[in-house]
Design goal:
Chain A is an alpha/beta fold and 777 residues long. Chain A is built from 26 helices and 32 strands. In chain A, the strands form seven sheets. Chain A has a seven-stranded mixed sheet with strand order 1-11-18-17-14-16-15, with helices on both faces. A seven-stranded parallel sheet of chain A has the order 6-7-5-8-9-4-10, sandwiched between helices. The relative contact order of chain A is 0.09. Chain B has a six-stranded mixed sheet. The chains are: A alpha/beta (777), B alpha/beta (387).
Chain lengths: 777, 387
């Protein structure tokens, strides 16, 4: 770890800390800080906008709110109440700490007070969030002094309590996994809930994208199917962070038309958002100072001045390292350092509750957290926020930054960029970040695999009837007939009956693409083998082949044994100066073309289904710092096949004839690398969720082709969106290329020169222009 | 381009198989039904069954005037064990006393459309008998049938609250001796029955699905035999338990006697409990039985009897530390004799081994408790002396 360079920046004078405004002034006046700042954006304070209590709001609720000093509602809260009263399904899109829980608690409690049999189901993505929300509800209900029962129902709920919740819970707070694997398959035990279900509340819906979202959409189809059986017609109340398409996401998730409420009326203090790019310390190799020591330097200024701060790090190990540094700095003469705390998954629940309480009570000055504190757990409000690296999506970044800032006071967020390509892209293109959010949350509920799995569950829950349609799936009967063929369903008497011994819900995990995940077992300590992670079977040959060096929380491990049949990889901690890079041989086959269009440049763009066959035969050992090749190793693993959705650009001869063969290769590889950087920003996914590859001669057409596909069996909707916005993606690929200061290519744009060739960058630039615009020839 | 079905076949690894033969057995207007009578010779005397005995066995109230012929013995065969909404009871058997015979009636659905008919039959039978007896039925069979009634929108079909779950009672009595109390094990160990060529329960769902596919009824006969035997054994165990609780002294094994004593104790049948404890005390459970008896005496207010029991334990070396501690408590709290309490506390402490690195938490806790008691008594004695 390099020595901290804290001498350069303002420190507390004589033990009297500066307040945040003074600190902002000092930072702005400090050239050694400002020269690394790529953007300093000040968002002006916003006055609150209010509405009177709606006339139909229950008088008892009104009194409770007034006793808490609330005499009017924010505009978005009032709009939500009105929408609920009008029987609309709606999504509320507002930032952190804007009082959004009221948007659903008010209509739900109102409904129950009016109709004591009414029921509501709340879904939160995590257990911690459920617990937090339930306790907020208890408080409200207790203040009301009425007999409304709100319970959390999840894996931690005791057996005895479960029965009571099924019978008497007015509001059941749970998560999608529990709904899927426990409540729906046992719906007969929940008759009261299903018969009287009035509201389904789903918070943080922007987290339901990709595989998780595709699964949840189907869980909701099953839920609505059962509601129909029991004669209930529930309404949806959804909440989302700010993304480009919250209403589209909500509509796809629920299969309903959704009203969007994004008129945020909550007041906000002035907010400063600073993008900080660590200085380059090695010009030749383009190496920047590490994100961790830089974060530490900045955070230590805040700590020294006693400014309540939250630091977000990206991994557990980063949290631990930063916490240790900060605690050392904060230690008082008696060795007490409790004013600095770490927070992450893996801490005991009681410990986490204590930290949350300490934060609300102002007993903790600094908390260093993973994204565990990003979602709405109530920790009060802090003054400053430091992000150690770009959190991966713009929505997450705003949510994390939203943890700082009281309603009236100034808040400061500093984002420290790492050297990852996406961090560099964001820190150098602040305009994308601060203009309208470009992130589209995508999901694909009709993914073949996902759909088939959930149809099994649905049939288990209630026999399908002839002519019944599952969600918007027109081919429902074909799926069911296939399941009959497999001997899983029996078609008799006009119904499809579940006709197997298994419990289908147990075969699906909502959060991963395949059921056959490999577990990664650390055998370093022979007395204590421990599972440290999971990986899907398509990635395993790349990263967990025997003798691969596998990185986990910044530690090196070597794969000792890969048991492909048992889905287990055994790894042991090592300390070596190289990494491994498996040579993945991918062959693509087009299974089906779904949509196609021809651009003005004569480029043909196609959306379709692909069969991807991947095999790893060798891997390279590469030296850590110089990336020189130290040798090869053999891999003996079977080919993996994946069926997925992809889109591709077929480049016509009118463009390609101007390039020599190797120049064309370099250019296409460059464009593929650029697209890999740009796409995650628009498709709101992790860089490894999509794959961009090129073929100089595509199998069916013999034409040079650029393929982009979802790295998930069956696809999760990314390629569909990419097909729609392909022009925008190419344009931004070109922008990234133009904005990159490198001469002949670097990992932050087209890839390094030894990959794309000497003229790779200029060729990529030329071909990108030609793809977008008709060539002038 | 491949069709959806082709794609599904290509990418899903579910093994498809040729479509089943169309079923050409004529659809009847009813589900399959069979019944069989058994002589009562192999049953314990059913007259031991009274409301009082049932309450002792099962710990729930039963109708005052309940008769042996009021009990319906029920067992289901299902398409799976998960018990969720997709599990179906495709065969239900019910047994009851009729004159000098035990009758088993069995119903089976030959396909899904017959399920409502089967449920209707069963619910009529259940309505005719005030008391229900099952093996693990509180957890499995009753909720499952409830599910099925609901799925077929058959409201008002209820399952009696006078529900004797023989598994629960059997566990209370025989767990000490047998460990796991499966019906098979109870049959062989308690009833002395061995089954020939019995279909293992785990094969039941597969057998039924195969029948749906190929319509060969013969393997289903084995399911019916299995179910019938289950019901007969269930009834035999039920009446055996009644006899055992009515006349606990007939129990053979000391483990059973001790378990019975505890059960009686819990149900408040104190005289019977005392009798069983005394019988159990003649054997391996001497220390525990004496302790239980002593606790009973303290509860009843007979301190001298309790102290005699503890002193005997101490003299015989049965759980002496426990006996000393109990005596110390009695002297301290009931007899207000701290000096005598001190004597026993000290004795208990001496009997605990020297502290060692490897002693269990329980020993450590016991030592702490005794030392705490010792310190308290000492303070009290000193202050008494000063006063």
């Amino acid at each position: 770890m390099p020595q901290a360079a804290s001498h350069m920046w303002p420190v507390a004078d004589g033990g009297h800390g500066m307040n945040v405004n003074q600190l902002i002034g000092r930072l702005k006046a400090e050239p050694s800080f400002m020269e690394n700042v790529t953007a300093w954006t000040t968002l002006p304070a916003q006055e609150g906008r209010f509405s009177d209590f709606p006339a139909s709001l229950d008088a008892r609720i009104r009194t409770v709110l007034q006793n808490r000093g609330i005499h009017r509602l924010y505009t978005h809260q009032a709009e939500s109440f009105q929408a609920a009263s009008a029987g609309r399904d709606f999504v509320v899109v507002t930032p952190t700490a804007s009082g959004k829980t009221m948007c659903y608690n008010l209509p739900v409690l109102s409904a129950i007070l009016k109709e004591p049999d009414a029921r509501a189901l709340y879904l939160f993505p995590t257990k911690a969030l459920s617990a937090d929300q339930a306790s907020e509800l208890y408080e409200l209900v207790e203040a009301l002094g009425v007999d409304v029962k709100a319970y959390t129902y999840d894996g931690d709920t005791q057996g005895a309590a479960r029965k009571a919740i099924r019978q008497a819970g007015h509001i059941v707070v749970t998560n999608p996994d529990m709904l899927h694997s426990n409540i729906l398959p046992n719906h007969t035990k929940w008759v009261k809930l299903f018969e009287n279900l009035k509201y389904i509340v789903i918070d943080e819906i922007h987290t339901y994208r990709g595989v998780f979202g595709s699964n949840l959409a189907n869980v909701l189809r099953r839920l609505l199917r059962l509601c129909e059986f029991y004669g209930a017609k529930p309404r949806f109340i959804l909440c989302s962070a700010t993304i480009a398409n919250p209403d589209e996401l909500a509509a796809t998730l629920t299969g309903r038309e959704i009203l969007k409420i994004d008129n945020n009326g909550a007041p906000m203090g002035e907010r400063h958002f600073v993008f900080y790019n660590p200085p380059v310390i090695n010009r030749q190799l383009g190496i920047r100072r590490g994100v961790l020591p830089e974060t530490r330097n900045i955070a230590s200024q805040f700590l020294a001045n006693g400014i309540p701060t939250i630091v977000f790090a990206k991994s557990r190990i980063q949290v631990e390292v930063l916490t240790r540094y900060m605690k050392d700095q904060a230690r008082d003469p008696y060795g007490f350092s409790g004013r600095v705390r770490g927070y992450r998954g893996g801490y005991l629940a009681t410990e986490r509750r204590a930290i949350e309480h300490g934060l609300r009570a102002g007993e903790i000055d600094m908390v260093i957290s993973t994204n565990a504190l990003e979602l709405g757990i109530d920790i009060g409000s802090l003054t400053a926020c430091v992000l150690c690296g770009y959190p991966g999506t713009i929505a997450s970044t705003w949510q994390q930054a939203g943890r700082a800032g009281r309603r009236k006071d100034t808040a400061l967020t500093v984002m420290v960029a790492s050297s990852a390509a996406i961090d560099q892209y964001i820190v150098n293109h602040p305009e994308y970040f601060f203009s309208q959010n470009p992130e589209h949350a995508m999901l694909h509920p009709n993914n073949l695999y996902v759909l088939l799995s959930h149809m099994k569950c649905a049939a288990y829950e209630l026999p399908f009837e002839d002519g019944e349609q599952f969600g918007n799936v027109k081919d429902t009967a074909q799926f069911l007939d296939y399941l009959v063929e497999c001997g899983i369903l029996r078609h008799v008497g006009g119904k499809y009956h579940w006709s197997a011994e298994d419990f289908p819900a147990s075969e699906i995990s909502l959060r991963s693409a395949t059921t056959e995940n490999f577990v990664i077992i650390d055998i370093t300590n022979p007395a204590h083998h421990r599972v440290i992670g999971e990986m899907d079977r398509f990635t395993v040959p790349m990263l967990l082949h025997e003798n691969a060096i596998y990185m986990h929380e910044a530690r090196q491990f070597q794969v000792e044994k890969l048991d492909f049949d048992a889905c287990k990889a055994f790894i042991r901690a090592v300390d070596v100066d190289y990494y491994t890079d498996a040579d993945l041989n991918v062959s693509l086959g087009v299974l089906d073309e779904l949509k196609t269009k021809t651009l003005k440049s004569n480029v043909i763009v196609t959306l379709g289904e692909l069969k991807i066959a991947a095999i790893v035969k060798i891997f390279k050992k590469m030296k850590l710092d110089t990336h020189e090749n130290l040798g090869f190793g053999q891999v003996m693993l079977p080919e993996t096949n994946m069926h997925t959705i992809g889109m591709w650009w077929t480049v016509p001869e009118s463009i390609t004839r101007a390039y020599r063969n190797d120049a064309l290769q370099g250019a296409l590889l460059g464009v593929a690398n650029l697209l890999s950087i740009v796409c995650p920003i628009y498709l709101m996914c992790a860089p490894r969720d999509i794959k961009v590859v090129y073929q100089v001669k595509a199998p069916e057409t013999d034409m040079p082709t650029l393929f982009l596909y979802d790295q998930f069996p069956g696809g999760v909707g990314l390629s569909e969106k990419a097909y729609e916005m392909q022009e925008l993606l190419l344009e931004h690929a070109l922008l990234v290329l133009n904005a990159c200061p490198c001469e002949n290519g670097c990992p932050s744009c087209v890839g390094s020169m030894h990959e794309v060739g000497e003229h790779g960058k200029s060729d990529a630039k030329r071909i990108l222009k030609e793809l977008i615009q008709p060539c002038q020839a | 381009m491949p069709s959806l079905s082709d794609k599904l076949r290509m990418f899903d690894n579910g093994a498809t198989r040729p479509a089943p033969k169309r079923d050409d057995t004529p659809q009847s207007q009813d589900c399959y039904h069979t019944s069989k009578r058994f002589p009562l010779a192999s049953f314990s005397d059913v007259r031991h069954m009274t409301a009082v005995v049932l309450e002792q066995v099962y710990g729930i109230p039963f109708p005052r005037d309940v008769q042996p012929a009021d009990v319906l013995f029920l067992d289901t065969e299902t398409t799976g064990l998960s018990g969720g909404a997709g599990t179906v009871a495709f065969q239900v058997g019910a047994g009851y006393l009729s004159g000098n015979h035990f009758v088993v009636e069995q119903f089976l659905m030959r396909d899904y459309p017959e399920e409502p008919l089967l449920l209707d039959k069963i619910s009529h039978l259940m309505r005719a008998f005030p008391v229900l007896a099952t093996f693990n039925g509180r957890t499995f069979d009753a909720p499952l049938l409830q599910n099925r009634f609901l799925m077929h929108r058959m409201p008002g079909r209820f399952i009696s609250d006078y529900h004797a779950d023989v598994l629960h009672a059997a566990r209370r009595v025989w767990k000490l001796r047998l460990g796991r109390c499966t019906l098979q094990r109870l049959e062989s160990e308690i009833l002395g029955v061995t089954r020939d060529d019995d279909l293992p329960g785990s094969d039941v769902p597969r057998t039924y699905f195969q029948y749906l596919h190929n319509r060969d009824f013969a393997p289903l006969e084995r399911v019916l035999d299995h179910n019938r035997q289950d019901i007969v054994s269930l009834a035999q165990l039920f009446f055996f338990l009644c006899k055992l609780f009515d006349q606990p002294e007939t129990a053979q094994a000391p483990d059973d006697l001790f378990a019975l004593a505890k059960a009686m104790d819990k149900r408040g049948a104190l005289d019977k409990a005392k009798k069983c404890y005394r019988m159990a005390a003649r054997d391996t459970h001497r220390a525990q039985a004496f302790q239980a008896l002593a606790v009973g005496e303290v509860r009843a207010g007979n301190l001298p009897n309790a102290m005699k029991l503890y002193t005997t334990m101490l003299a015989r070396g049965d759980e002496p530390i426990l006996a000393c501690e109990a005596l110390a408590k009695l002297y301290e709290h009931k007899l207000a004799d701290p000096e005598q309490a001190m004597v026993y506390t000290r004795q208990a402490l001496l009997m605990l081994s020297e502290p060692s690195l490897w002693e269990s938490d329980a020993v450590q806790l016991k030592r702490d408790a005794l030392q705490y008691r010792y310190a308290r008594l000492r303070r009290r004695l000193m202050s008494d002396a000063n006063a």
